[in-house]
Amino acid sequence: MSAASDDDPFDGDDPLDSDLLYELTEARGVPGYEDRVREIVRRELADSVDRVRTDAMGNVVGTIEGDADPDYSVAVAAHMDEIGFMVRHVDDEGFVRVDALGGFDPRVLRAQRVTVHGEEDLTGVIGSVPPHTLTDEQTEADEEVSDVFIDLGRDADAVAEAVSVGDLVTLDQTTTRMGDCVTGKALDDRVCLFATLEAARRIEEPEVTIHFAATVQEEVGLRGAHALGVDIDPDLAIALDVTVANDVPQIGEAADAVTSLGEGAAIKLKDSSVITSPKVHRRLTEIAESNGIDHQHEVLPAGGTDTAGFQTPGGAKPVGAISIPTRYLHTVTETANVRDVGATIDLLTAFLESETGEHDYTL
Asked: What percent of the chain has pLDDT over 70?
């Protein structure tokens, strides 16, 4: 685990637990196999909630019972899984071919270090042909994730002995400080999982029952959230996920940036999977303004979140979402500003503490 530096902005009068954030982001957990992350979540929730349960899919739910109306409940969701691969073939030369678990941009995969979780964890690299030897045809060809091959530095017999079809592959990267930011793999969505766990730790004696849900298989279709939307059947759901921060030189129009690092928590208005309930996002905005919490509004043209998973499975439900602006999504150098993380925790906590079950979210 990477250690926080002496000038870590997590430090201060109200320090955030940077060691926990680094532990969460560096843990391995692709869709359907979130075991290592689930262990951390269960450990952290144990002292913060009244009860913890895990369902047949692997979703973890930590519940704090409300003091007022036990029939009114709020679900707060952040997903545990990260994008990765599953082994589909080992060829005669000992190179490993994979199937993607989640959405990858093939351009960023060349020469990345990975871990193949076979009989034991093996370090490998995704192969990359040197530019000196690329043909014009290869240079102009569109790259595909299906073209990825992993070199384990072993002969074919050794690889065949150690690796099997169905073994998992994760990208290999540590988390570290970078100025006012943290950078590493799987900030999507472990940084929001971290924020959820921090909010659960802060909240005491809420008026309504709160279910803190760590969901599975979000990256392959919001599957864990869809199941919990039925199983928990909350009266209100708030999902946390990262969102696009294209506030970098290659983006021409300011509108295309979606959000900006350092401007605070992002209150979602829409993405391609959901239009959040107007009364919910308005109240989130009011809470942020009345508490002096830095915030911005998010309109995301593409991409979906667990928010949609809770909106309709058990009937129409009011939903809202808080996002943490993050650069370089779905790479091993995802980057978020720690002050935006802090603002997200503050906003989520203030919103939940102010929820009485009496707000009318119907339209």
From this structure: 90
219 is in an annotated binding site: yes
Which of 53, 62, 54, 60 is closest to 79 using CA atoms? Answer: 60
Residue 360 inside a domain? The answer is no
pLDDT of residue 160: 94
* Type of residue numbered 104: F
With bands split at pLDDT 50, 70 and 90, how would you rate the model's confidence at 6? very low
Q: Which positions ≥6 away from 88 have C-beta within 8 Å?
A: 97, 98, 99, 165
Reported as a single tens digit per residue, the pLDDT across 27-65 is 999 999 999 999 999 999 999 999 999 999 999 999 999
Burial class from Cβ neighbours inside 10 Å (0-12, 13-18, 19+) for residue 83 reads buried
Q: Is 241 annotated as a binding residue?
A: yes
Q: Which two tokens stand for residue 315?
A: 């009937």
Q: 188 labelled as ligand-binding? A: yes
Length of the chain: 363
| Structural contact between residues 113 and 174, judged by C-beta atoms closer than 8 angstroms | no
Q: Which one from 23, 26, 218, 298 is the annotated catalytic residue?
A: 218
Domain CATH for 124: 2.40.30.40
Shared-domain flag, residues 157 and 217: no
**Helical residues (DSSP H) of 252-334, grouped into ranges:** 278-290, 306-311
Could you tell me the pTM of the whole model? 0.91
User: How many Å apart are CA 281 and CA 271, to the nearest integer?
Assistant: 13
Chain mean pLDDT for the chain: 90
In three-state secondary structure terms, 358 is coil
Same domain (yes/no): 212, 338: yes
Looking at residue 167, what is its pLDDT?
Answer: 97
Lookup: tokens for 150? 């992993």
Annotated binding residue 330:
yes
- Tokens found for residue 201: 């730790």
Task: State pLDDT tens for residues 116-175.
Answer: 998 899 999 998 776 666 666 666 666 788 888 999 999 999 999 999 999 999 999 999
Same domain, 163 and 192: no
How many other CB atoms are there within 10 angstroms of residue 5's CB atom? 12
Q: In sequence order, which residues have a C-beta less than 8 Å from that of residue 123 and are 6 or more positions away? A: 113, 114, 115, 116, 152, 153, 172
Clarify whether 298 is annotated catalytic. no
